[in-house]
Amino acid sequence: MNPPIDQGGWNPDIHDALPRILAYAQTTLEHDYRAASPLRVLRETGLAHTHLVGRVHSPLVSLLSSRELARLAPDATYWHLIMDDLRLDGLKQCARDFPDLLRIFSID
Predict the structure, then answer these.
(1) What residue ranges in the chain does DSSP mark as E strands?
(2) Which of 9, 12, 14, 58 gives 51 a disulfide partner, CB atoms 3.0 to 4.6 angstroms apart?
(3) CB 70, CB 52: distance < 8 Å
(4) CB 27 within 8 A of CB 62
(5) Entry pTM
(6) pLDDT tens by residue, the chain, 108 residues
(7) What does each C-alpha distance from 63 to 79, 87, 91, 106 come to in angstroms?
(8) How far is it, in rounded angstroms, from Cα 51 to Cα 24?
């Protein structure tokens, strides 16, 4: 089994002016230059809090529950992955539960 990735993150109890970006990504070749590297630069330059969710060397994606997402309270979500029924259901659930949350979706 491939362990989950947990890159970045923020303390959900601390609120500051920085935007919070939560990303879902597969660990494919595109993972680093489409999600991990840009998020790392935003975090390291102090422009945003970022959190990347995925699985190491796997096409599988770990989706957070609505409760976990509510606790993290991101300002935006970035979805970089290959679409299938599970991921589409996750995206729909996010839209249903958090209609005002910005959702950015990309496919290679």
Answers:
(1) 4-8, 20-25, 49-55, 76-80, 102-106
(2) 9
(3) no
(4) no
(5) 0.83
(6) 444 455 777 888 888 999 999 998 876 667 778 888 899 999 999 999 999 887 666 666 678 889 999 999 999 999 887 677 777 888 888 899 999 999 998 876
(7) 10, 8, 9, 16
(8) 9
